[in-house]
Amino acid sequence: MALLEVDNVHAYYGKIQALKDISITVEKGEIVTLIGGNGAGKSTTLKTISGLLRPKEGRILLEGKDITELPAHQIVTTGVVQVPEGRRIFGQLTVTENLDMGGFTCRNKKLIKENIDRVFGLFPRLKERSRQVAGTLSGGEQQMLAMGRAMMTDPKILLLDEPSMGLAPVLVDLIFETIQKLNDAGTTILLVEQNARMALGIANRGYVLQTGVILLADSSENLNKNEMVRKAYMGES
Amino acid sequence: MTHARSIWNNGVKTGIIGGVAVLIISLVGMVVSFNRRDIIFEFIAMGHTLLLMTGILIGYTAAKKTTATTTMVKCFNAVVASLVTFSFLALLVIIGNAVNLRAILVNASPMLYKALTLGHHDSAAGIFIILGIGLLCGICAAVLYSVPTAVRRITITALCSVVIAGVLQDLLRPVLLAWGPMSVISDFLFAGNGLTAAGALTVILVIAGIMTVWNFKGDDVKENYQHFSGGTQRGIKIGAFVLLACVLLILPQIVGLFLSEVLTIVGLYVLLGLGLNIVVGYAGLLDLGYVAFFAIGSYVTAILTSPELGFFALNFWQALPFAVLVGICFGVLLGIPVLKMRGDYLAIATLGFGEIIRILVLSDALRPWLGGAQGINKIGKPSLMGYEFSQPQEIYYFILAGCLLVVFISMRLKDSRLGRAWMAMREDEDVAQAMGINLVATKLLAFASGAGFSALSGAIFSAKIGSVYPHSFSVFISINIICLIIVGGMGSIPGVIVGAAALVGLPELLREFADYRMFVYGAALVAMMLLRPEGLWPDVRHKMELHKDESVAEEPQVSTAT
Predict the structure, then answer these.
(1) DSSP secondary structure code for residue B358 in this structure
(2) Where on the phi/psi map is residue A64: left (φ > 0), alpha (ψ -120 to 50), or beta?
C-alpha cells in the first residue's frame, strides 16, 4: 500500500479547471517530484493534498485512509505537512518561536522540546541563530526554518513547494542537500520544483505536469534521458 | 551657489509649508479662541504659544533636513524657514487690512489681526512685530539645533512641560487643591487662567533639574537596578505596582466630580479598546462594526432591568451575564458569514453590521421592544451589599474593577495557546492553517471574546448613564476605538490605556475647544502615522515589524527559475 495516493483528482478554481484527472502515488521513504512550467498545476496538486483546495472529484488516501474530506488543520495532524511556496516564515518571531509554532498541534511540552532539538540536529545553522528574529535570517536560512518548522510535527510526508525559489545558486545546492538529508532521516517527500534538473537529481521518481494533466510518469533516470523533458524543462535545444 | 540652492530647497520650501499651517491655524479660529486661555498668566496665551511652537518646529525641521553641511548654513536655513512661515501671517494682516475677508473667511476678524500683531494691527509696526517674532522663532530654532543633543532635549522637555502644565491646568488645579497643604503649591503655580511667571520658571527649573540629574546619573541607576538580586527587583516592581494601585484607588477622591466623570469615560473606552484589541491587534481582523456589540450589551441590560418596558425586572448583576452572553452569541453570528473575508472586505462587511444594529434599535417596528428613537430609561444601577453605584466617583470603582478584570484576561490570552494561534493567523492565514491551526474556530473565538468585552462595557455604560438611546451607538465610536488602538499601539495592552487617555481623556479635559476636536484629532493621527507608526506604547513585535528595514540586511536574491 502506498503512503500517499492521489486518485483521479479533478480540481477547480471557480469555473476554471486546474487539475484534470491527476493520479499520483508516493511510496514510503521516496522522494517524488512534480515538475512542469508555470500554471501546470504543481502547486495546485499540493494544495489539494493538504486540504487548502477541495477536489471536485477523486480521492486522496493516506496509508489507505481517505483524507479527502478532512479540513486542512486536521490533515496536518494525520502527518501530511506542507511547506508553502515563498518561505513564509513568521518574520517577527525568533527561530525558536517559529519552531514552537510548527509544533502547534502538539500539546506535549516535552515532545515539543525533543522535536526542537531534533530539528536543530538536522539544521545546525538554525541552532546557532535560535534566538534571532526570523525576518533577519538569510534567504537560505529562512527556507531551512520553513522546512524545520514543518518537521516539528514529525510528518509522514513533507510537501515542499518550490523550495529553491528566489535563492542564489549556492543556496539552491544547500537546500537540495538538506532535502536529501531529511529523506535519509526517514521522511517521505513530495517535491514541487521548477528547477527540473536539480529535482530529478535527488528524486526517485517524477511526474511531468502540463496544464493540469500528467504528461509523463517515470523514474528520474528515464525522465532525465527523455528528450522532451530535456528540451522543455532543462533548456536544452 | 549651493548655499543659495540649499536655502531655496529647504528653508523657503519648509517655510511655505509652515506658512500654510499657521494660516490654517489662524483662519479656522484656533488662535483667537485658544488665546482665551493663558499658558503663563498675562504673559503668553495659548494661541500664541501654538504659533510660536509651529514656527520653531518649522525652523528646526529646515535646519535638520538641509543637505548643507556647515552649521552656519543650517542655522540660516532655520531662520529663513521661520521667517517665511511668519511672513504668511504678515501677508494675511496686510490683505486683511486692505480688503474685508470676513465674507468668505469668517474667522479673519479684527480680533485675529489684533492677536497676531499683539495689538498693533492698524499700523505698519504690526507687520514688523510679526516678522520680528518669526525671526525670533528662527533664532530659537537655530540655537536649539546647534546646542548639544542633551541640552536640546532638556530645554525642549522643560518648555513643553510648561505648555502641558498650562494646557492641563483644569486637571492639575483641582488635584492640588484637594488637599489643604497642597493648595499652597496651586496658588504658587497658577493664577487667573494660566501659570504664574514664578510658577512657570519653577516648572522649567524642576524639569530641567530632574532631566540633568537623570542624564548624569540615569545610567548608574539603571546599572544599580541590574545589580539588584532577582528578589529585590521583584520587590521594586511589586512596590511600583502597589503604588499604582493606591493612586488608582484614591484618584476619584482627589480629582473631584468632573474629572471622575472623565475617568469613567476613559475607563469605558479602555474596556472597549481592550476588546477590539483582541480582534484587531491579536487576530488581525479589522472590525469596523465593533460598536454593534457595545449597543447589544447596553440594550440587553436595558431590556432586562428597565421597568419601563415591563418585560423583566432583573437587577443589574442578574442582567450582566445575559448581556455578555448575548454579545458573544452575536459575535459568533457576525463571524460566520465573514469567515472567508480578509482585510478591507472584512472591514466593510463589519461596518455594515454595525449600522444594521443601530438602525434596528432606531426602527419604529421594533419600538415596543427596543424603545425606538426615545430609547429606554430607568435602567437599574448596580449595587453591592445594599450600596448603590450612582455617582461618577462610585461608578469609577466599578469600571476600574471591570478594566482590571479585562486587562488580566487580555494578558493571559496573549500568552496562551489561543493567543499564539491568533498571532499566527494575523501574520499569515495560509501558513497558520498549514501549522494545523483551525482557522474557523480561531477566528470565531476572536470575534466572540472581543464582542464579549464590548458587551460588558455596553452593560456598564447603560448602567452608568441610566438610559440608552440609538444615537449613542454611531459608527464614530467604532472608529474612535480603532484610532485609540492604533495611536496606543496595536496589540499592546498599556498602549490601549495610553491611547484611550490621549484620544478620549484629553478632548474631555479641553471641552472649551471642542470645535477643533476633529481637526486636531485628524492632524494628530497624520502626525502619529508619520512620526511614530508603531504607536505611543507599542507591542514589542509590532515595533520590530515597523523598524525591520533598519535592522535587516537581506542578502541579494537571485532567481534560479529555469
Answers:
(1) H
(2) left
Closest CB to B430 among A84, A150, A235: A84
CB contact under 8 A, A88 and B431: yes
Question: What is the tens place of the pLDDT at every residue in B229-248?
Answer: 777 888 888 888 888 888 88
Q: At B27, list the grid cell.
A: 483662519
- Closest approach of A232 to chain B, Cα-based (Å): 10
pLDDT of residue B542: 62
How high is the pLDDT of residue B555? 38
DSSP state of A135: G
From chain A, pick out residues whose CB is under 8 angstroms from the CB of B558. 166-169
Count of all residues that appear for chain A in the document: 237
d(CA B538, CA B352): 30
Mean pLDDT, chain A, integer: 91
In b/e form, how buried is each residue of A37-46, taking b as 16+ CB within 10 angstroms?
eeebbbbbbb
In the structure grid, which three cell numbers stand for residue B415, read together? 500568552
User: Which site among A101, A174, A194, A236 would you substitute to test the B interface, given the most B Cβ atoms closer than 10 Å to its Cβ?
Assistant: A101
Tell me which chain A residue has its CA closest to the CA of residue B438: A73
How many residues are present in chain B? Answer: 562
* Beta carbons within 8 Å of B522's beta carbon, 6+ residues apart: none
Q: Are A49 and A66 in contact (CB under 8 A)?
A: no
Bridge partners of B195, per DSSP, are: B40, B190
Cα B265 from chain centre = 13
Integer angstrom CA distances of residue B454 from A203, B304, B330, B380, B398:
55, 18, 11, 19, 16
Cα–Cα distance list, B346 to A52, A125, B288, B349 (Å): 20, 40, 9, 5
The answer to whether the CB of B88 falls within 8 A of the CB of B20 is yes
**Which range has highest mean pLDDT (A76-80, B362-366, B529-533)?**
A76-80
The single-letter code of the amino acid at B14 is T
Q: pLDDT of B403-434, one tens digit each?
A: 999 999 999 998 899 999 999 999 888 889 88
Are β-strands A31-35 and A205-210 bridged in parallel, bridged antiparallel, or unpaired?
parallel
CB contact under 8 A, A101 and B436: no
Question: Does B558 have pLDDT greater than 60?
Answer: no
* CB-CB under 8 Å, A135 with B544: yes
Asked if B450 and B276 touch (Cβ cutoff 8 Å), the reply is yes
Phi, psi of A5 (to 5 degrees): -135, 120
What's the whole-number mean pLDDT along residues B255-265? 85
* Rounded CA separation A101/A97 (Å): 6
Q: What is the pLDDT of residues B173-231, one digit of tens each?
A: 877 777 767 778 888 888 878 888 888 888 899 988 998 888 888 777 878 777 777 77
Q: Which residue in this structure is represented by grid cell 461608578?
A: B395
Measured between beta carbons, the chain B residues lying within 8 angstroms of A101 are 420, 424, 435
C-alpha cell at A222: 528515464
Mean pLDDT of chain B: 86
Interchain pair A91, B562: CB under 8 A = no
Do the beta carbons of residue B79 and residue B135 sit within 8 Å?
Answer: yes
* A81 interface with B at CB cutoff 8 Å: yes
If you average pLDDT over residues B441-451, what whole number do you get?
Answer: 94
Cα A193 from chain centre = 9
pLDDT, tens digit, 9 for 90 and up, residues A194-233: 888 899 999 999 999 999 999 999 999 999 888 888 888 8
How would you classify the pairing of strands B383-384 and B387-388? antiparallel
- The amino acid present at B386, given as its one-letter code, is G
A14 at interface of B, judged by CB pairs closer than 8 A: no
Q: In this structure, how many other beta carbons lie within 10 angstroms of the beta carbon of residue A86?
A: 12
- The string of pLDDT tens digits covering residues B453-477 is 999 999 999 988 888 999 889 888 9
Q: Looking at chain A, which runs of residues are DSSP E strands? A: 4-13, 16-26, 31-35, 57-62, 65-66, 80-83, 157-161, 188-193, 205-210, 213-219
